[in-house]
Amino acid sequence: MAEGTRYYTWAMTQWIPAITSHEMQDVDEALFKMGYDLRQLMENAGAAMAYLAARYLHENPAGKKIAVLCGHGHNGGGGMVAARRLHIYGAQPEVLVPAGTLKPVTWHQRRLLENMGVRVSQISRVDEQSWQTIIGADLVIDALVGYGLKGPLSGVVADMLNHVGTMSCPVISLDVPSGLSSDGEILNGAIIEATATMTLALPKKGLVMPQAQGYVGDLYLADIGVPGELYRKMGWSMAPIFNGSPYIPLTDTKTGEEGDR
What we know:
The protein is an alpha/beta fold. It has a single domain, classed as 3-Layer(aba) Sandwich (Rossmann fold). Helix content is 34%, strand content 22%. A 10-stranded mixed beta sheet has the order 2-1-10-9-8-7-6-3-4-5, sandwiched between helices. Helix 2 (38-56) packs across helix 3 (74-88) and helix 3 (74-88) runs parallel beside helix 4.
């Protein structure tokens, strides 16, 4: 891709920019400077994910078995919020987390789930016993790795992705399909092939590049509460995106020069 080229995606009535991981970090930092709290953003992301999951369950999540795969970081925390919301809707979420230390905010979400009676299992390897709990799931939520991925996945996380590939139910990824670079780099390793991806705040560049299409599936954008004024201060002039909906579909892609934004 030529230097200075930007990807755009079509959202409802306007083109919006697809951003890099560094630009998303800038958005996060600007939100924190405004006084936003990480738990607040995580709650918004997980709530939107639960709404989308309900759509893929034909608006009838009650009694449905949902496998929620969560990483140690903030993406995993968003997946746990989705699991909690779906439990409230009457679904039966089963949460699997790779063995290891959770970030504090993600640990808080795990504690909420366990206080509600939702089982959270940490696994050190993927085998028949550890995977048995999610056999026959009606839906998989992939919240293992977010936009900060730096290289190919390996170990138990890669094994989890490979096992998801053997399941026949829909798979929805949070922000970025685990294993896929948010910046569009080609990574050799396990990558989720999602039925749909719900990305957060703004679409990530790697999601709309041609080589990603077999992994992303249907692409949606979630409202996590970013005010339009923040985007305008960062140089992206956009009309309101969501108009009251927790998420919107993204369709079509174009490229343009950096000055087009």
